Each structure stands twice: as structure tokens, then as C-alpha cells.
Amino acid sequence: MDVIAACKAFVAVSGHGSFTVGAAAARIPQSVASRRVAALEKHLGVELLTRSSRSVALTPFGREVLPSARRLVELAEALEHDAAQARLRPFRLAVPEVCGPRPLAALVAGARAHDLNLDPRPAAPRRRAELARTLEVRAAVVAVPPDDGAWRVPLGLAGHTDPGDAPAIYLESLRAGRAERTARRRRVLIQAEDDVPHVRDRVRRLGHAVGLQPAQVVVAGSLVAAVAEVLASDDLLLCARGQAEELGLHWRPVGELDAARGYDVTARSREDGRRVRALPPALIGRCLGVPEGEPGWA
């Protein structure tokens, strides 16, 4: 038996002296109110109400227990109110700066359907981890090696010119020939989101292995500055396919390297981490730019 529901019916019926009026006040059918009061009487082993064809009245026992029943109903209503307020309280979540406004809005809207009122805080990788550690946010989507994460976003190289039928761009093709030694050398620009060891160091090691100069693989000061360089030159931006499309650039995978971003959720509170992980993975995955078929898409 649902004791709280039964007490609500008992309080409403006794307060109005009628099953019909009390049931209407409690927004339940009269037959349901009657069954619930009868179930409560059976549970307590004593009649709570005397019934006549036109009205009901409290029995002496009913008068004794009514205050307790009313307190239980009030506590239940207070709990429901507090729970509703808690669901509306903003849940600060640190997210990558590469998440666009529209995908972020879709994430917030989708999370509301799961009683989570997200307040996204875009930040660079190291800053996101710091925000979670110092409790400035309740949880953070942090950068991790792709094999260790819940989400994986493949990376490639994007430029302003269409590479045509080429299935990939090879870093080796950026190596200057003898006749080009004095010319400006094409660069690979790494944005802040990929300035993490499992991405940055792998690209730099590959560049060294294929004969690129150290200055040909650099971390850009900002995404805007990096894109400006790409638009004004033959430089290439390391990025995800979806990001390249948003920027109007032509993207291809790296021929010699399976580069990817990896993401997972971190939180100081186990419950906060659980609430974010309980969301459908695709809600966050699509915000991160996870393509169909990769971990975290569905």
C-alpha cells in the first residue's frame, strides 16, 4: 500500500466531510479515494471515518491520527517541491571550446528531458580538468587518450584548397624539396583543444620522422588566428571533420597516423559524475563532433 497516497486521500476526505468533494480536491476519482482510505483503515486495523449516504465524519481514532497523517502529507509535498527545485538548479559542466552553439543548445535541451539543467562552461583541456578539481564546475568533459575514453573524435588535416580525389593528406608531402628550401614551408597548426600529449606529441613525432622542420608543426595561439593562417596560405589545421565543415575548409584524414581526440567525464562527486554519464551518450557525443559509428555516437 502507498501510505502517502492513502494519507492524502484521508486528509482530503476528512477535511471536506465527503468522499466526492474530497476526491475532487485531491484530483483523484471518488472510487480511488474510497479504496485508499479503506486500505489505510485495514493497514491500521481501525476505522478512520464513519460513513453515511450524504457525508463522512471522523471516528475518535481518526481524530487522533489525522494530525500525523497531515504532517506526513505536508512532508511529502515539501519533498516533491525541493526535488523540483533541485532539478532546476543549474548543473555547471565544463565542455570543450570546440563545441558549437547549436550542438551545445541541443545538449542542454536533451539533458532537460532527463531532469538535468546543464549550464555549459566552454574551456581548454587543462582548464576543464582544473575547474572540476577546484569544484568550480560539478563535472567536466576532459581530454583522455582515445582508447580510454567514452567518446572518440577522429582528427585530420584541413585547408582552404580542395585536395580533389586524394583520400588522405600525408605529412611527408609537406617536406620541402631541394628547390623549395628557401620557400616558406607549409605548416600543421594545432589548436588548443589538441594541445595534449596524446595528440600533439604524436603529430610532432610523425613530423620529425618524415623530415619536417620543428617549426612546421606548431600550436596556434587561437583558433581564429589558426584559421586565418589557413585561409591566407597553404597551411593545414589539425581538426575534426565536423569542425572543418563549420569553418568551410576541406578535410582529409592524416595518411600516416590514426589521430583522434578522446573524451570522458570527471567529477569530484560520484553522484555528479553518474548523472552526466546517465545521459544518452549521443547527446554529448554529437556536441563533441563524434561521427556516426565511433564510440559515443549512440
Question: Which secondary structure elements does this structure contain, and how are they paired or packed?
Answer:
Blueprint: H1 3-16, H2 19-26, H3 30-44, E1 49-51, E2 56-58, H4 60-88, E3 91-96, H5 101-112, E4 118-123, H6 125-133, E5 139-144, E6 151-159, E7 188-190, H7 197-209, E8 217-219, H8 223-232, E9 236-240, H9 241-247, E10 250-253, E11 260-266, H10 270-277, H11 281-288
Parallel strand pairs: 3-4, 3-5, 7-8, 7-9
Antiparallel strand pairs: 1-2, 5-11, 6-9, 6-10, 6-11
Helix pairs in contact: 1-2, 1-3, 1-4, 2-3, 5-11
Brief overview, please?
The protein has 298 residues and is of the alpha/beta class. It is built from 11 helices and 11 strands.
Give structural notes.
By secondary structure, this protein is α/β, with parallel strands linked by helices. It folds into 2 domains: about 5-85, Arc Repressor Mutant, subunit A (Orthogonal Bundle), CATH 1.10.10; about 90-298, D-Maltodextrin-Binding Protein, domain 2 (3-Layer(aba) Sandwich), CATH 3.40.190. Helix content is about 45%, strand content about 20%. It contains 11 helices and 11 strands. The strands form 2 sheets. Strands 3, 4, 5, 6, 7, 8, 9, 10 and 11 form a 9-stranded mixed sheet that branches. A two-stranded antiparallel sheet has the order 1-2. Strand 7, helix 7 and strand 8 form a beta-alpha-beta unit. Helix 1 (about 5-15) crosses helix 3, helix 2 (about 20-25) packs across helix 3 (about 30-45) and helix 5 packs antiparallel against helix 11 (about 280-290). The longest helix is centred in the first third of the chain and has 29 residues, at about 60-90. The protein is rod-shaped. The model has no long low-confidence stretch (mean pLDDT about 90). This is LysR family transcriptional regulator. Belongs to the LysR transcriptional regulatory family.
